[in-house]
User: What shape does this take?
Amino acid sequence: MQTDPRRITSYSPFAPCRGERRDYLSSTKYPTSVPARTQISPGVWSDGKDRVFSSAYPAVQQLLKEARATLKQPVAPNEIVFSLAALDVFYKPNDAAHWIFWSDEKKHQTAEVVTRIAREHLLFFDL
Assistant: This one.
């Protein structure tokens, strides 16, 4: 049995009352501006205060190149490079490097490292 999609009617608790205007987009107490960043070197961006590393960082690309060539998980120079490489191939199951990080045997270990690094270094994720 197929049902019609739900519609907001005048009787819906989500519909504004007659004459009432609800402007949800402008009612946040958090800043909504995006800092202007410039690339200061390949894969490294800065807003003048903080640095953000992306998967274009040469060490990340070198790690992925080695992983694709050997089909083994290479030793990463640090966990940030490891995390960026793992995230770069997360949505790319056709890439051989994806399975080096996200196979059934490795996915929990990879996710633990990525989560820990993301919590410690909030500004390195800019894929």
Observations:
- The mean pLDDT is 83.
- The beta strands are 38-41, 44-46, 51-53.
